[in-house]
Write a structure and sequence with these properties.
13 helices, lyase (chains A, B), homodimer, alpha/beta, Ser/Thr_deHydtase_PyrdxlP-BS (chains A, B), 375 residues, Rossmann fold, 13 strands, pyridoxal phosphate (chains A, B), Threonine synthase (chains A, B), pyridoxal phosphate binding (chains A, B)
Chain lengths: 375, 375
């Protein structure tokens, strides 16, 4: 069942709307209890589809074997943590988990063409999964998007539309395009989070069917917080874990609408003036599901912290000096963990898993520039 | 036990030589029978270390969770094949499997500093695993190596040495450096293939504990052929599979010393004048273990074929149009499969697995250039 948060109206799972008729966004709610069995997981495929009993789609999935990414111990300068290397999904970011489910569900529902807007990981992922699944897609990107990102999208056969103006102008152009084509936006879709959540199931399996005390994730639109909250809630409900990990989201100081709300005890993201940040993947000034994200963070007894630009760059180099090569956005978690320890949000002796979202191989030019600047 | 192919001299596993005193290369031979159990594999970690009973190293491994890469069905223009997306290893290439084992074994044997020479995937992998394992490393690269590759190596904290002249001059400089530091070369090491072989175990598991009729791999130095031959031989010996897949190696026409030898029925790679190829990762004019590679190909009833530059580029775009984004080197397998079908080396109705070695995200500039040229 899909439900609108704004007006409570419900729709069937096979409805072909990308949002409620009132304009609100839709969220998926399961109507039957889950069936989760460790044995069926262990004997399942070596991909996120080993958790298919918790993914609400039919048998014909659009998959490139996404998931089962490494969880490895490392000292990132804050004592030992567990790094979830989720940038090792097929197109170089965790978005593949969500896009796999989203494209699968849309195809089930009869969608054959769609539009997405993104300047980065989601665009590459959407273009690739549409290619894999035989869907037509048009990706709207800001005119200044790097050639490297454009070539990955175009190589997959997607139609690339470069939009003059700001990132917001790109979204507006995509919405305009959505009048005639299905708007497949991962942020609006109720299905995206149903794929993203599988990373949390994996952490549970990889930790020997247990969960960490803390989970620290980069926070932009908040799909990682929402995915983890959903997965851990399902595991709690099924009696398979005994506590909800504290979910901590990390934003860049230059774009921290959720952190500002968290600090002030507010229920909705704060309106901010966005400043450019090296963590471009989480530079979302108006997160669509911000209220829910704040509820999940508070509901898990977690927190939200913001980190400055220098500390992000230092975090990036700290990770690469451990052999872990991520894009700058992912590196917010390194100073994030430090801040969370300082503030007491993470206590000594607790276990902490840290999520790394995007590959450094996507950001070669930027990493080169940052290395030159800091020399 | 390590054994020299040239003079048959043997050494213990903990010997600290990188080659035989006679100058020949060393190969590892197991002295005890293997213990392979499907149940212990299934309950093992979600990485290549689920096959640790067949990897000859001790308990303290240098790992970033490499392995368990996707195996997915796709039509690459030649009917349905199984694509092994092994570029989804931690640093973006399958080399991580071998380098994980190699660095682990060298550290066990007391090595603390090493030298490698590479202009590409092996250098990035070695730098990253040395960083992870606390080993010092110096990577020799040709002076013309792209900034992007250099930044990945330097970010991991490796010392980068740019050598004037040709690729062969770089190898000579590394050998010269090896007088004072351990030469960790993955091509010379007897341990590299013991890691690489795990991809073939994975295919066996992913196909429901069975193996394909054919395996098609890019062929440069030949570690993929040797790794697969070793793994499948071990599985045959253990009675866990009933046939050896035909192993087919694909080279670029511009650098095909093994194909030329295969065609002429010779036992050693043919001396050739190398021409530049877009498949730079397999541009090896004098493969060190070439004789063994030819033995493995013939022993498996496989073959070796060469493909031209245009067909490699077409193969690259064919893969990307399926959502599979690899570096040009990997794309040789696409025209390779076509040729193998034409020649009858692959018959109708047979199952074929195809190996993809390196990430397209490492080759953004080159892919951009190829797209511009072909427009």
């Amino acid at each position: 069942m899909l439900k609108c948060r704004a007006c409570d109206r419900t729709y069937k799972d096979d409805c072909s709307l990308w949002r409620c008729n009132c304009g609100g966004y839709l969220t998926y709610f399961r109507e039957r209890p889950l069936e989760i069995s460790r044995e069926s997981i262990r004997s399942g495929p070596l991909s996120m589809w080993r958790y298919r009993s918790v993914i609400p789609v039919g048998p014909e999935v659009i998959s490139m074997g996404e998931g089962v990414t490494p969880l490895v111990k490392a000292d990132i300068g804050t004592g030992e943590v567990l790094l979830k290397l989720d940038y090792l999904c097929p197109t170089g970011s965790y978005k593949d988990r969500g896009i796999s489910v989203l494209t699968t569900k849309l195809r089930e529902n009869g969608v054959t063409s769609l539009i997405e807007d993104s300047s980065g990981n989601a665009g590459a992922s959407m273009a690739s999964y549409c290619a894999r699944g035989g869907l037509n897609c048009r990706i709207f990107v800001p005119h200044y998007t790097s050639a490297g990102k454009c070539v990955q999208i175009e190589s997959a056969g997607a139609e690339l539309v470069k939009v003059p103006g700001t990132r917001e102008d790109t979204s507006a152009a995509a919405l305009e395009g959505a009048r005639s084509t299905f708007y497949g936006s991962h942020n609006w879709s109720p299905w995206f989070v149903e794929g993203v959540k599988t990373f949390a199931y994996e952490i549970w399996e990889q930790m020997g069917w247990s969960v960490p005390d803390n989970l620290v994730v980069p926070l932009g639109q908040g799909s990682l917080v929402l995915g983890a909250y959903r997965a851990f809630s399902e595991l709690l409900e099924a009696g398979l874990i005994d506590h909800m990990p504290k979910l901590h989201g990390v934003q860049a100081e230059n774009c921290a609408p959720i952190v500002r709300a968290y600090e002030r005890g507010l229920g909705s993201p704060v309106s901010i003036d966005k400043i450019e940040t090296v963590a471009e993947g989480i530079s979302s000034s108006q997160p669509l599901r911000g209220e829910e994200v704040l509820e999940a963070i508070r509901g898990s007894k977690g927190s939200a912290v913001a980190v400055d630009e220098n500390s992000i760059v230092e975090g990036l180099f700290r990770l690469s000096s451990c052999g872990v090569y991520v894009e700058p956005t992912s590196a917010v978690v390194v100073p994030g963990v430090s801040k969370l320890i300082e503030s007491g949000a993470i206590s000594e002796g607790e276990t902490t898993a840290v999520f790394l979202s995007g590959s450094g191989l996507k950001a070669t030019d930027k990493i080169l520039e940052l290395r030159r600047k800091t020399k």
